[in-house]
Design a protein that fits this description.
With about 180 residues, the protein is mainly α. The protein has six helices and two strands, in the order αααααββα. It has a two-stranded antiparallel sheet with strand order 1-2. Helix 3 packs antiparallel against helix 6. The longest helix is centred in the last third of the chain and has 27 residues.
Length: about 180
């Protein structure tokens, strides 16, 4: 089947895909033309970097897409209030690494990985039951017993991407004055 004879998407799926595409594009505009060194640069008081944000947004989208299919992941329970930040547990170190562009990573590699994740999410939007739901993980920021539909989860991915596009835009502007918008 070619792109011209593929079945038309219902308006709801088309809207979700358009929303995701728009915010991914704004997000990726913040790293266009950056070097690996620039992508690792901290340009604000925050620990965030452009490369770290690409890595984080990719992992976050992949995790929520997996949630749509498989429900909440097991994973290590972390008591965030009891952490000894001078000697954090391995689960915390792994979480923190998800926000860092390591020396052995390239911006091109992180962007390519993000493109793979986005393509897989888009394929999921096209085929999954949007009304199907999963229980949210047992975390203090979710109401106990709450569920999200696939539709709600895809909207959450778009919101997360938009939020981090704003973070990335500030970081990029502080590096070289370029803005994604305006």
């Amino acid at each position: 089947m070619t792109a011209t004879d593929s079945p038309a998407l219902d308006p709801q799926r088309a809207d979700l895909l358009d929303l995701l595409t728009k915010h991914r594009g704004l997000f990726l505009a913040t790293v266009a033309g950056m070097t690996d060194d620039q992508a690792r640069e901290r340009s604000t008081v925050s620990e965030l970097t452009l490369g770290g944000l690409v890595k984080h947004v990719s992992a976050t989208e992949e995790g929520w897409a997996q949630f749509v299919v498989e429900g909440p992941a097991g994973g290590a329970d972390v008591d965030w209030e009891a952490i000894d930040w001078n000697d954090p547990p391995a689960a915390v170190l792994a979480y923190q690494d998800g926000f860092r562009m390591r020396d052995d990573e390239t911006l091109a590699g992180l962007v390519a990985r993000y493109a793979e994740v986005a393509a897989a999410t888009d394929a999921l939007v096209r085929r999954v039951d949007l009304d199907g739901s999963q229980p949210l993980p047992d975390q203090p920021w979710f109401e106990p017993g709450s569920r999200w539909t696939a539709r709600r989860t895809f909207l959450h991915i778009a919101v997360e991407t938009a939020q981090h596009a704003g973070h990335a835009d500030i970081i990029r502007e502080a590096i070289d004055g370029q803005k994604a918008m305006g």
